[in-house]
Amino acid sequence: MLGISGTATTLLLLILGATVRADEPTTEEQMAANLGMSKFLVHFSRFACPESPSTGDKAECVAYGYQPVTDAFAKNEFPPIWVPVAGVSNDTEGYQKFLSINGSVPNIAPKGVNGVPTPNLAYDAAKDPDCWWTNTQCVTPKHDGVKADIADVPEPKTLGYGFDDGPYCGHNEFYNFLTSKGQKATMFYIGSNVVDGPLQAQRAVKDGHELCVHTWAHPSMTALTNEQVFGELWYTIKAIKLVTGVTPTCWRPPRGDADDRVRFIAQSLGLDTIMWKYDSFDWEQGTNGVTPADVQNNYNKLINDAKSGVLNSRGAILLTHELSNYTMQTAVDNYPKLVEAFDYIVPVGVAYNKTNPYAETSVTQPSFAQFAAAHGGPPAPSGSASSSPKSASGSPPAPSASGVKLDNSNSTKANNHSGAVTVRLQLPATILAFVGLAMTFAV
Ligand SMILES: *[C@@H]1O[C@H](CO)[C@@H](O)[C@H](O)[C@H]1NC(C)=O
Ligand SMILES: *[C@@H]1O[C@H](CO)[C@@H](O)[C@H](O)[C@H]1NC(C)=O
Ligand SMILES: *[C@@H]1O[C@H](CO)[C@@H](O)[C@H](O)[C@H]1NC(C)=O
Ligand SMILES: *[C@@H]1O[C@H](CO)[C@@H](O)[C@H](O)[C@H]1NC(C)=O
Ligand SMILES: *[C@@H]1O[C@H](CO)[C@@H](O)[C@H](O)[C@H]1NC(C)=O
Ligand SMILES: *[C@@H]1O[C@H](CO)[C@@H](O)[C@H](O)[C@H]1NC(C)=O
Ligand SMILES: [Zn+2]
């Protein structure tokens, strides 16, 4: 979700423009102007998290300044937020790295412009020469040297648990819930949200979740040039590194929109591509006629498959979102049912024994065997029906957070604005719905 086409952006700016009051303090606007950002984007903060909990936790959605991010923007180290990255030619390190890989990228033409797909693009779906997921759900590349996607997990009756589109400013109740269950997940973060919610992003690492990249501005990646694809990933990696101290090694394409060209660029940046096989469509609730009952049916499909043995030889990955109170609360409501249906619920990397989820070795997570041992027994041998005791409570070996730079681990704290401004942008549901109308593809 959150794909912003040029048209939608224009419309958004129109909507927001109408809401700016002339008599409001202008500090943020002036600072944003100094940073070359639109004041309208700053004023998105007025709408931050309309659904944020009314239970005394609202402070988490008040805009705050975070000095390392403010300083980086002042030095033009990041592109404008929520705009598909134009390129990396101003970034010496990034551009050198890009040029070093560009000659090896599979020769596939972009399938659109600036992140907006070309409507009705001619494509031979039968041959599927580019392994274009959007068209064919292909996850096994056609080009040599391109790593296959991860779309499920090899362990039986195991769920690779994850959430897209964070960090959401109002996620504390949700993260509190996960922590109360000893549950870790894979969080696919949008770079524009990371610089907006750096303390929220820090919390994910501190809580032991596995952070992956979900691009800078959530465009359709096959509709970008090689340099733009690189930039979307490069700046999100850089943002996560800046605020959490770790370098992610996995990513998920918005709307699943990947082909071999995009996959190759991602893998050149050290990123595994993680897709899914079950989709909750939770992001779509309230739009396009999608109801909570529809979303529950999607959850039920996964739950019933797990219960009826469909996932007894390989486990699953479900697409869900850290996007609104609704999507998070739906995850909370379904958690007990998932615990009942699955033997193990783990971050995707744990199901792949990825004990070092980041380039740095300072943060670790358990192997699958270690996780299983801490949750009631050894894993069942792959391929056989599992009879392991199920339990998702209790704690796996704690990930070591030593060496992680956490300047302020209390992500409920809202800094005051006098020192600096971090541009805050969390798209409210009404506007999300509106953007949805302008989108060609879902998710
Ligand atoms: C969603 O909002 C309701 C009402 O404010 C609140 O009680 C609930 O805890 C929130 N859920 C999450 C996951 O934040
Ligand atoms: C590079 O910087 C110039 C000057 O700040 C700017 O006009 C241009 O858009 C930037 N190019 C990219 C690709 O970001
Ligand atoms: C990267 O490669 C593409 C495809 O060969 C080419 O069109 C583009 O000009 C290259 N970019 C740069 C900056 O060299
Ligand atoms: C993870 O490690 C276990 C042994 O502990 C092995 O059986 C399993 O195949 C490994 N999984 C992967 C994806 O390599
Ligand atoms: C986090 O910050 C909030 C708001 O400043 C404060 O009320 C709360 O006590 C802090 N919690 C911790 C654990 O420091
Ligand atoms: C806000 O921050 C500034 C500088 O960081 C500090 O001088 C001021 O006392 C703070 N105000 C409040 C209300 O905390
Ligand atoms: Zn997304």
TrEMBL record:
Single Gene Ontology MF annotation: chitin deacetylase activity
GO biological process: cell wall organization; chitin catabolic process; fungal-type cell wall biogenesis; polysaccharide catabolic process
Renumbered residue ranges of the record's region Disordered: 372-416
Domain NodB homology: 157-353
Membrane topology: Lipid-anchor; GPI-anchor
EC supergroup of this enzyme: hydrolase
Record keywords, A-Z: Carbohydrate metabolism, Cell membrane, Cell wall biogenesis/degradation, Chitin degradation, Cobalt, Glycoprotein, GPI-anchor, Lipoprotein, Membrane, Polysaccharide degradation, Signal
InterPro entries in the cross-refs: Glyco_hydro/deAcase_b/a-brl, NODB_dom, Polysacc_deacetylase_ArnD
Cofactor dependency: Co(2+)
Catalysed reactions, as listed in the record: [(1->4)-N-acetyl-beta-D-glucosaminyl](n) + n H2O = chitosan + n acetate
Residues making up the signal peptide according to the UniProt record: 1-22
Subcellular location: Cell membrane
Domain of life: Eukaryota
Biased composition (Polar residues): 407-416
Gene Ontology cellular component list: plasma membrane; side of membrane
Name listed for the protein in its UniProt record: chitin deacetylase
Classification lineage: Eukaryota, Fungi, Dikarya, Basidiomycota, Agaricomycotina
